[in-house]
Design brief:
mainly beta; Lipocalin; 5-stranded antiparallel beta sheet; 3 helices; Quinoprotein_ADH-like_sf; PA2928-like; PQQ-like domain-containing protein
Length: about 350
C-alpha cells in the first residue's frame, strides 16, 4: 500500500518542479521589465503651483497643494498612468500625513488655484473652469456645467473666479458677463444684486493674473511697525534686519548677516509676525548661493529655525494654529508658532503610481 501511494507523490513533486522551472523565465522577464525599470528610473518631477490653500478638518490645519507631476517611474506606470498629471493634495500641516491626493487633469500646460474651503467642500479655479471637491476624500462634487445656476455658461479661465472673504462666498462670471455667487458649502450659483460693477472688473476673464507678492525688502509687524533688510555700511557685503517703529526709529534685530535676502510676506505683513518672528529667504552665505529659509525671532534677533529650499517662496498661508505654510516651486514647509520648520512631502507614490 505504501509503495502504491509513493508513485502519485513523486509525480506531484515532478509536476511542481516542472511548473516552477517553466515559470522562472517569465518571472525573470517580468522582474526585468517592471521591477528593474522601476529601480533604475528617476522619480517624476514635482512642481508646486502657487495657488495653495488651507482648510480645517476635525480641528486640524490641512494644506491644500496643487502640483504638477511630470514623468512616470517604471514600465508599469508608463502603461497605466498619465505622463503629465495635475493634482491636488491635502496634507495635514501638523504631522505631514497625506489625507488624499487626486488627479485633476492630464494636460501638459494647466493650472489650478484653491479659492476657498468650507466645512464640506474645496473650491478651485482651473484652466478648465470651476471645480468643487469633497473636503473629506477629494472626490468631485461638481465641476463646470455641473454647478447649478452656472451650467453651460461657465468660463474655462481661472481669472473668471474669485473669493469674497467678507461674505464667505465664491464669485464667478458667466459667459453672459453676469456675476454669480456660490456660498461656501453650496453647489448652487445665484446672481448678486450689489457691487456688480466692482466684481465684474475683478473677474474679467481676460485679465492678467499677477502672482501675489510674496517677498520684499520690508514687511509690516502691525501697530505701525515694520521690519526691513538694510544694506550694511558701504562696501560691506550683506544686509541686516532692523525693526522700524512708527516714529521711524530703527533698532537692529540680531546680528545675523543676510545675503541677497528678502522678507517673506503674507499679504503686506511679514509672515509669522503674529507669532513673534519673521521669515527671511536668501543665500546660505556670502559664498553659497543656494537658498535658505530662516526664522528670526523679532524679540531676540536669534535665528530659531532654518530650512534649505530649492527656490524662493511663491506662496504663503497663515494657519489657524498660529503657524505659516510656505511654498516654493519644489516644496512646501510649515513654520510652527514656536519657529520650527518642517517640510511636508507632496507627490510621493508607490510602485503602482498610487499616492503614498
Amino acid at each position: 500500500m505504501d509503495h502504491l501511494d509513493a508513485r502519485p507523490r513523486r509525480t506531484s513533486v515532478r509536476f511542481r518542479v516542472a511548473w516552477t522551472l517553466f515559470l522562472v523565465p517569465f518571472l525573470f522577464i517580468g522582474f526585468m521589465f517592471f521591477g528593474f525599470s522601476y529601480l533604475v528610473s528617476p522619480e517624476p518631477e514635482i512642481r508646486i503651483q502657487p495657488g495653495v490653500g488651507v482648510a480645517s478638518v476635525d480641528g486640524r490645519d490641512v494644506a491644500l497643494v496643487p502640483y504638477e507631476r511630470s514623468g512616470t517611474r517604471g514600465m508599469f506606470q508608463v502603461m497605466v498612468r498619465d505622463l503629465f498629471q495635475m493634482r491636488l493634495a491635502a496634507v495635514d500641516a501638523a504631522d505631514g500625513r497625506t489625507l488624499w491626493d487626486v488627479q485633476l487633469s492630464d494636460r501638459l500646460v494647466w493650472e489650478s488655484s484653491v479659492l476657498a474651503a468650507g466645512k464640506q467642500y474645496v473650491y478651485l479655479a482651473t484652466d478648465s473652469g470651476p471645480v468643487v471637491l469633497n473636503l473629506r476624500d477629494g472626490s468631485v462634487a461638481a465641476r463646470n456645467d455641473g454647478i447649478t445656476g452656472l451650467g453651460g455658461s461657465f468660463i474655462a479661465k481661472r481669472a473668471a473666479y474669485g473669493y469674497d472673504a467678507q461674505n464667505h462666498r465664491v464669485m464667478a462670471m458667466n459667459a453672459d458677463g453676469r456675476v454669480l455667487a456660490i456660498p461656501l458649502d453650496s453647489l448652487v450659483a445665484a446672481p448678486i444684486d450689489r457691487d456688480t460693477a466692482g466684481w465684474a472688473s475683478a473677474l474679467a476673464p481676460d485679465r492678467f493674473l499677477d502672482p501675489a507678492k510674496v517677498t520684499a525688502a520690508a514687511g509690516d509687524l502691525g501697530s505701525g511697525e515694520r521690519v526691513e533688510l538694510r544694506e550694511r555700511s558701504a562696501g560691506v557685503p550683506g544686509s541686516a534686519l532692523v525693526r522700524v517703529a512708527a516714529d521711524g526709529r530703527a533698532t537692529p534685530v540680531g546680528d545675523t548677516v543676510f545675503h541677497h535676502a528678502f522678507v517673506v510676506l503674507d499679504g503686506s505683513s511679514a509672515a509669522g509676525a503674529a507669532a513673534g518672528h519673521v521669515l527671511v529667504t536668501g543665500d546660505r552665505s556670502v559664498n553659497d548661493t543656494h537658498t535658505a529659509l530662516r526664522v528670526v525671532s523679532v524679540g531676540s534677533g536669534a535665528v530659531i529655525g532654518s530650512l534649505d529650499v530649492a527656490s524662493s517662496p511663491t506662496a504663503t498661508i497663515a494657519l489657524a494654529g498660529g503657524g505659516t505654510a510656505v511654498a516654493t516651486s519644489y516644496e512646501i514647509a510649515v513654520v510652527t508658532a514656536d519657529g520650527r520648520v518642517t517640510p511636508l512631502t507632496v507627490g510621493a507614490t508607490d510602485f503602482f503610481g498610487n499616492p503614498s
